[in-house]
Amino acid sequence: MGKLNIKHDENFSEWFTEIIKQAELADIRYNVKGFVVYRPWAVITMEKMYMLYETELQNKGHLPAWFPIVIPESNFKLEAEHVEGFTPEVFWITEHGDNEKFEEKLALRPTSETAMYKMYSLWVHGKKDLPLKIYQRASVYRYETKATRPFLRSREIFWIEGHDCFATEKEARDQVREDMEMTENVMHKQFCIPFIFFQRPEWDKFPGAIHTYAADTMLPDGKVLQLPSTHLLGQNFSKPFNIKFLDDDGQEKFVWQTCYGPAISRIYGGMIAILGDDKGLRLPFDLAPVQGIIVPIFTDKNKDEVLAYCEKVKGILEMEGYKVMIDNSENTPGFKFNEWEMKGVPIRLEIGQNELGADTVTLVARTSREKVNVELSKLVETFKHKGKEVTDTLRAQADKNFEDIIHDAETIEELKDVLDKGGFARVPLCSIDMDGKECADNIKSETHGDIRGVRFDKIETPEGKKCIYCGKPAKHYVYVARQY
Ligand SMILES: [Zn+2]
Predict the structure, then answer these.
(1) Domain covering 285-389 in this structure, CATH number
(2) Which of 57, 250, 381, 480 is the most exposed, having the fewest neighbouring CB atoms within 10 Å of its CB?
(3) Does pTM surpass 0.85?
(4) How far is the CA of 449 from the centre of ligand 1 (A)?
C-alpha cells in the first residue's frame, strides 16, 4: 500500500480500477447491482465541482430549485419521443407499505423535463415570466444494461440539470451557445478537461430534442467519453406541457426551450482518468480535498520541535483559507510521499531539521515534483503560486494529449486502423439525417465505432468526397470513435 505503480497510459483499465480502490474513491460492494458507494475523498471533490458549476450557472442568470424525485406516469408520457427513448431505462415505483398499489405508477426521475415542465406551465403566463432559467442539483436513475463502472457508468448519476424557457427561438439557440461557454469556463478552465462539442446525428439525439450538442472527451485508452450535453428542445415539450405566454401582439405562444446536463459524478470519473499518472491521482488545486500535505521528518530527539513547527506552518496556511494536513502517522516519510502522491494532493511540504533551523519549508508540486525551499515569510505566496502552477500544468498536459487524436479515414479498413490505435477518425458520411442511419449502423457493426456527429466549432465540408460506407456524395465530415 501507499504506492500505485500501474502504467496509466498503457494499462488504463486496470489503473482506473486500482485507483478507485487504493485512493478510497468508491466501493462497488454495495448489494444492489449498478449502485455504487462514493467515499469521502471523491465526494469532497465532487462537492467542490458542484459549487463551481452552480456558481457559473448562477452568474449566467440561472436560479436553483428542487423538484421531486418521483414523476407520475401521466407526466412522463406527454412527449412521445421522450417516453419512447427513456422507458427502457426507467425504475418504476408501483406500491407502498404492505403491497398497496399506487393508483398511478411513479417513475424515479431518469431526467427531470417531465417533472419540471408540468410546473413551468403553472408559472409562465406573460413575457414578464421569461426567460425562465432554473437548474437543480439532483441524482437521476437509469437502468443501464451495459456493464457498470463507478463514476463512468452506473444506475445512479449525480448531476445538475438546467431547464430554460424563452419567448423566441433565437434566444433558445443563444442559450445553447451559452451552455457551451459555461462548459468551457468550468470543465476546461477549472477541471482541466479538454473536449470537442459535436452536433449529434438525428438518430442519436436526446429523446424529444430538435438538436443535441454534446461535449466529448478522450480517455487514456483512446475511447470517447460523453460529458455535458445541451439540447435545443424547441417547442417539442412546451406544446404537450402547455407552457405558453401572452406575447406583445396579443397572441398566446408556446415557449422555446433548452436543457443542459453536466453529470458531476461522470465528469469526476473523466477528470481523474485524464489527469492521473503512473503514481496515481492528480487533482486541480481548487478541487483537492487536501491542498497541502505536511510530512514531518524527525528523529526521536527533535520530534516535538519538528511537529510544533509543522503546526505553525499549517496555521499560517489555514489562516489564508487553504486546506492543509499534517501526516504524523507512524509510516516512513517515503511511504507518506507515495501515499499522498497516489491520492493526488497538489503540494507536499517537507519539514525536518534543516527547515526548522532555517525557518524555511520545502515545497514539492505533484506535477513537476521539484523541491523548492522557501522562507516562512514567502510561504503563503509560494504555496498559492505552486497551486496555480499545478492546475495550469495539468490543463496544459491534458490539452497536449488531446492534440493529434484526430486522423482522417476514407475507407472502412483505414477507419478500423485509426480506431484500433484510439482517438477520433474523421470520415466523410452521406448524411447525419435519418437517411444516414443505415450507414452508421453498418459502420458500427463492422468497426465498433460510434458516429459522434459533426463539429460545432467549425464547419467542415467534404468537397467531392464520397460516403465512407455507401459511396454516395458525402454531405458531412463526421467523427467516429469507440465509446467508453
Ligand atoms: Zn452513406
Answers:
(1) 3.40.50.800
(2) 250
(3) yes
(4) 15
